Amino acid sequence: MHDINDMLVFAQVVKAKSFSDAAKRLGVSKSLVSKSVSRLETKLGVRLLQRSTRRLSLTEVGEAYFEHCDRILDELALADSTISRLHMEPRGKLKISASVAFGTLHIAPALADFMAQYPDISVDMTISDRIVDLVDEGYDIALRITTEPALNLVARRLAPIRRKICASPRYLAKHGIPLTPDDLIRHNCLDYTYLNTQGFWHLKGPDGDASIPVSGTLRINDDEALSQAVLGGLGLALLPTFIVGKDLQAGGLVEVLPGYGPVERFLHAVHLPDRHLPLKVRAFIEFLSARFGTEPYWDRQEAVA
């Protein structure tokens, strides 16, 4: 395999038409330039340059080889320039993984603003509740809702993910408003099966932790479907505010037992450890952090326009 440095030196000698001038351009000694060209000729087994005291000229083989060298060195310069531009400003394809509900409701709607801000970034997003392997599947970043991210990944906390006990005004008008956690026992409490509560709601509140036995006429494995059942007046449920925030703000749902809820989780942006985090990843994380803020728009008391 040819030494790129020797090729570079040879090309400079040809362009300068002098060992001395090439040495000055490269900032090295003339003897080093001469040794480099001789080493290249030895490796190739041909003479590239005709040397004389008065002039320097290319052999026929040297002329053909120089054309290839010049093309290769131009490609290397272009590659260096591309890498430099990638490090100077966010660009390239950003591969993202996000959960179905959060990705659909909050990440997909944000992409238009993000890509308008960074027009040189294209996005390849997978919507799935499956935990993807960032290494094997080539993802730049995954957005995960969890209490504790995996230790082998770098995680940036972006927003709190809260669940509130919710019911429709129609249900509460008919069945009454629970005033204490124990009152839930007498209500139709609908279960989200992925919480694995097994007939209990584990709540944290102003009086400490409580495990309340609950029962109801519906168990379902999808939060958005569950929220529709609650909006229809079927019963109460622990619903994530990133799904029902607008309904709470508009009055379609009412929070029951304010201050009581399960352990708070968080949305994290996770990526592989990298001292040189690509600017496209850094830009996306900072964009989402600014968009969600310290109090996400779905948790504010008033609707955000």
UniProtKB/TrEMBL annotation:
It comes from the Bacteria. Gene3D superfamilies: 3.40.190.290, Winged helix-like DNA-binding domain superfamily/Winged helix DNA-binding domain. PROSITE patterns: HTH_LYSR. It holds the Pfam family LysR_substrate. Keywords: DNA-binding, Transcription, Transcription regulation. The lineage of its organism: Bacteria, Pseudomonadati, Pseudomonadota, Betaproteobacteria, Rhodocyclales. InterPro entries: LysR-type_TF_proteobact-type, LysR_HTH_N, LysR_subst-bd, WH-like_DNA-bd_sf, WH_DNA-bd_sf. SUPFAM superfamilies: Periplasmic binding protein-like II, Winged helix' DNA-binding domain. PANTHER family: HTH-TYPE TRANSCRIPTIONAL ACTIVATOR TTDR-RELATED, HTH-TYPE TRANSCRIPTIONAL REGULATOR. Residues 1-59 form the HTH lysR-type domain. Belongs to the LysR transcriptional regulatory family. This is LysR family transcriptional regulator.
